[in-house]
Amino acid sequence: MTHTPGNALSHSYVIKAVNSCGNLTAYGAASATDVVDVTAPTAIGNTLTGVKTATAAYSWGTSASPDVTQYRFYGSSIPSGAFPAGWTLLQTTPTRNWTDPLASVRSYYVVTAVDGCGNESVPN
């Protein structure tokens, strides 16, 4: 887009759009179409590791998806409960570690990756 004000100087502008997920468009032709991200991130790359005593400290690997903004940590007392119905969301965190202060109540954990649009991966 070019704008020429009354003093005959020429100015050029570059316009970038931000979609509903906060993603910027590339420089180029303008479009009124918002492409919404509905693709879930990939699952966490490796298994959940931790040490369980009265509390449990856990850490996990990354998702291969570059747009992951947070992780959701779930706990259950049933090892094969259907996800997510049999699991309780314990923490949403931007980091890849969490300590469960009530580890004596829960014995099973899973982690999911969540992108900036709220799409959630399958549990690890």
Describe this structure in words.
The protein has a domain at 49-115: Immunoglobulin-like. Helix content is 0%, strand content 31%. The chain has no helices and eight strands. The strands form three sheets. It has a three-stranded antiparallel β-sheet, with no helix packed on it. The protein has a three-stranded antiparallel β-sheet with strand order 6-5-8, with no helix packed on it. A two-stranded antiparallel ribbon has the order 1-2. Strand 1 (2-3) and strand 2 form a beta hairpin. The radius of gyration is 22 Å and the shape is elongated.
Question: How do you describe this structure in short?
Answer:
With 124 residues, the protein is mostly beta strands. The protein has strands at 2-3, 11-12, 49-52, 56-59, 68-76, 88-93, 97-100, 108-115.
User: Strand-residue fraction?
Assistant: 25-35%
Strand order in the largest sheet: 3-4-7
Total DSSP helices:
0
Order of helices and strands: EEEEEEEE
Shape: elongated
CATH class of the domain at 49-115: Mainly Beta
Largest sheet: 3 strands, antiparallel
Q: Report the mean per-residue pLDDT as an integer.
A: 76
- Based on the coordinates given, report the CATH architecture of the domain at 49-115: Sandwich
CATH topology-level name of the domain at 49-115: Immunoglobulin-like
Q: Which ranges are low-confidence, i.e. pLDDT below 50, for 5 or more consecutive residues?
A: none
Question: Measured on Cα atoms, how large is the radius of gyration?
Answer: 22 Å
The structural class is: mainly beta
Number of strands: 8
Please bin the fraction of helical residues.
Answer: under 10%
Note the gap between the termini. Answer: 47 Å
